[in-house]
């Protein structure tokens, strides 16, 4: 992880290196800074996909 790992701080809404806020306030680790910048969007997309799979499973 060149220059990383990177984390997204939920408390400050910023990308930070390993020596940032406490783990409970962060998403990650991410391999690149860019991945960490899109952490909230990635989590939302995964959650939407899982919810759709749950609905499809319940409908069967």
Describe what you observe in this structure.
This protein has 60 residues and is α+β, with helices and mostly antiparallel strands. It starts with 5 loop residues before the first strand and ends with a helix. It has 2 helices and 3 strands, in the order βββαα. It has a 3-stranded antiparallel β-sheet with strand order 2-1-3. The chain has one domain. The relative contact order is 0.18.
Mean pLDDT metric: 93
Low-pLDDT residue intervals, each spanning 5 or more residues: none
Rg from alpha-carbon coordinates: 14 Å
State the total count of DSSP E strands: 3
For the record, the count of structural domains works out to 1
Summarize the structure.
The protein is an alpha+beta fold and 60 residues long. It has helices at 33-37, 39-59; strands at residues 6-9, 14-16, 26-30.
